[in-house]
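#struct-queue
[09:14] JT: dropping the first one here, sequence first, then the structure tokens:
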Amino acid sequence: MHSSAYAFGTAAFSLAEVAGKSVLEAGSYDVNGSVRPYVESLGPASYTGIDMRPGPRVDMVMDAADIPAKLGGNCADIVASFEMLEHAEDWRAAVRGMILALNPGGLLIITTRSVGFPKHDHPGDFWRYSLDDMRAIAGEAGLDIISLENDWEAPGVFLKARKPEDWLIPALDWPDVTLAAIE
């Protein structure tokens, strides 16, 4: 994990937002660092790491798209994904799964890579996201953006958004988002 993604990840969690809450991390396999120890120090009721393969900091093996089917919808107060989304071959299904997992009023925190970042298979690397892409993804999903910024260290995007209390499920197919594909 880049130091900037770690810095954003730790800054995105406040004690008031985490203490006593359920946290779900999609793409939790620890390749090169994790915010999990920091977040756990804030006293969540639970912290569950999921990934498509077993490994360090992975509690359950599953695809992010399968969260609602396996854990139920509205199952987490916070859903976080650090440096995973560019590795999701079906990014729409992964984002849909993460959003459906969020409780009303819950937080979605994502860090991912943008055009200009080199290909890095862990195990695959498929997409690059811009600020406009992430704004459209959050907007079309009906989320309220709290923070959306470019990575200040390397090409990437950081998002913190809230699922409204009165959220109604939109189509979640993102027809207007055209990401840069990695060859």
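[09:21] JT: and here's the second one, same format:
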Amino acid sequence: MVYFTADLHFGHKNIIKFCNRPFDSVEDMDNMLIKNWNDVVQYEDEIYIVGDFTMENGRAIRYLPRLNGKKYIITGNHDKFLHDTEEFHTYFEWIKEYEVISRQGFKWVLFHYPIAEWSGFYKGAIHLHGHVHNREIAYSWGSAKVRAFNVGVDVNGYKPVSINEIIKRAGRIPVMERKPI
């Protein structure tokens, strides 16, 4: 199975207040995020982290081996730790800033930030992002008019989202037609 997630912010105390996360401490948040991840993602699954895994390399080194799945990461604005050491490359299949993948007959555009239009926009490609946490934007899960989805933990029950769930939601949204100029 393939999963997507973003904006975990492991070890980030202020994110609890900033996003009104229901945790009493960083330790509670981190433990729940790890549990939720491993309850969903199995060892052989692929998981794409669309930015903001954590802000500190020490925590990343401690947590990455505890998380199931073959991990891929799109760097977010808080993922500066990834450039601290080559050791992180042993935990990720790849580390990129932007990527387009093909899975289950769809083109998936992965970028930490929500973008207005992407490669394949008029051909049914799906854009997955994070960054905005639980703030409403032009295309949120409930009101999307385009095939763009926030895969961040704050709007997905603090757990990864399966590719099948996203395909199901995307299926309710017609592909945008290009209007003649």
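[09:30] RK: nice, looked through the second one.
[09:31] RK: Strands lie at 2-5, 46-50, 70-74, 92-96, 98-103, 106-111, 126-129, 148-150, 161-162.
[09:31] JT: good to know. Residues 2-170 form a domain with the Purple Acid Phosphatase; chain A, domain 2 fold (CATH 3.60.21.10).
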